[in-house]
Amino acid sequence: MVGLINRKSEVEETRQNPCITCSGHCCSRNLINVCGYDAWLIARGLSIKPTDFLAFAQLEEEETPYNFQIDGSGRSYYLVLNMNEQPDGSRRCMFGISLPRHQLRCGIYNLRPIACRAYPFVLEGGEPAIKPWALCPQGAWDLNDLDILPLREELGKFQMEFCIYGLVVTHWNKEVSKQPPRKKLDFRPFVHFLMEVYDRLQEARERIPQANWPGIWNRWRRSMARGINPLWSEDAGLNQPPSWKEWLGEIQGVVGNAVDYMG
Ligand code: SF4
Ligand code: SF4
Hints:
The protein is α+β, with helices and mostly antiparallel strands. The chain has one domain. It is 42% helix and 13% strand. The chain has eight helices and nine strands. It has a three-stranded antiparallel β-sheet with strand order 1-3-2. α3 crosses α6, α5 packs across α7 and α6 runs antiparallel to α8. The longest helix has 29 residues. The N and C termini lie far apart (66 Å). The N terminus is likely disordered. The structure holds iron/sulfur cluster (SF4) (2 copies).
């Protein structure tokens, strides 16, 4: 009987979180794209240099607002987590930890980037959906089994972070694109710039009361569902709560002065 009860709870647990029994395909078959907030959180949270865990990859697909330039050559790149080569020749995220029974677990679970936290979900028209190309075992996730309100809120927060990163990258690219092409590519000035900007953004975040964040994330999600990035909309702050206006003003203030942090 006890065994049966345990077995039932294990099945139930797996139904709500299929990652428990999965071998972690998402950590080994993807390049993990990170934003400035992810880089800052891991670097500051672990007290390590961003270049200890980040790499940059050249863009093959369509350009996005998150692709940074290193010089004025017009080429752009995106930030990714370093991958380690395994004894069998495969590659996987450097933070993955192997457990018995071929399970893979995250060694920085509380600091893992947005791409990992959100996987395999996306927002479609402001509502959570499962990526059709997700690497999860077939049928592993069912939105009906999940608590949608916190998921929706969390995805709104992630969307906000990528919008902020897009603004930071736009300011960086505007300055760097004036520089002559370089023979040796070095992304260290960019990540140094990110750390400076996100240190200041963190100070601004701490000025917003904790209780106001869910409202900000949800408002962000709804705005994006209408196709409006609040950071590029002149009337985004109109008739909105003070904390929303304050946060938008803080972001614009920090990022607007970001050129001062360029090395
Ligand atoms: S591939 Fe899907 S089910 Fe497997 S660990 Fe990643 S998110 Fe979880
Ligand atoms: S940070 Fe963690 S969850 Fe993300 S790919 Fe690496 S090991 Fe996987």
